[in-house]
Amino acid sequence: MTSTEHGGAVPKPSNWNLPNAITVIRILLAPVFFAMLLADGGTDSWLRWAAAVLFILAIATDGIDGHIARSRNLVTDLGKLLDPIADKVLTGAALVGLSILAELPWWVTIVILVREIGITVWRFVQLSDRVIPASRGGKLKTLAQSIAISLALLPFPSLLGDWMNWVNGVTMTIAVLLTVLTGIDYLVQAWRLNRRPAAAA
């Protein structure tokens, strides 16, 4: 329960709400997208286009559920926790799929996944004290990853020429750099938080 200016109590929103349902759907769509991507086998068939469009639509719901939650006062601790997890499951499926198809170096996928899994584990460890939502830098990182992965999934090079490979390389490089930098920022925050109890003692 939370208090209003006049001393009244405002009930917390239920975890069973529309934004959280959209987030769960995004998680459930990840294996469907992954199967479609691998079924194409890198042949740029209609399955590849369908997989790319499904990824773009699914990742776009990240902004939709966040907007609904904030505008309708439906922000919950569960939503704060599930939202970044849904993004990581979906982007992780895309990165692994692209690497399996030999369209993305495995080291890129590994660097991103190690960072994402590490921060997610850290969030779970902190659950007993507080829920840590995604930072502004983390949201920018997610946007950069979404753009880079979407461009990598869309078979534009076969239609527009090899210069699209250069564009894909630049956008993916930006995404990797933001992933690493925001990961370091989270580690610095964790170090500072761990120092506070010691300083207080």
UniProtKB/TrEMBL annotation:
Q: Would I find DNA damage among this entry's keywords?
A: no
Q: Name one Pfam family in it.
A: CDP-OH_P_transf
GO molecular function terms attached to this record: CDP-diacylglycerol-glycerol-3-phosphate 3-phosphatidyltransferase activity
Q: What's any one GO cellular component for it?
A: membrane
**In the record, what lineage is assigned to the organism producing the protein?**
Bacteria, Bacillati, Actinomycetota, Actinomycetes, Micrococcales
Which superkingdom does the taxonomy of this entry point to? Answer: Bacteria
Instruction: Recite the UniProt keywords alphabetically.
Output: Lipid biosynthesis, Lipid metabolism, Membrane, Phospholipid biosynthesis, Phospholipid metabolism, Transferase, Transmembrane, Transmembrane helix
Species of the source: Herbiconiux oxytropis
Entry protein name: CDP-diacylglycerol--glycerol-3-phosphate 3-phosphatidyltransferase
Chief location: membrane
Report membrane topology: Multi-pass membrane protein
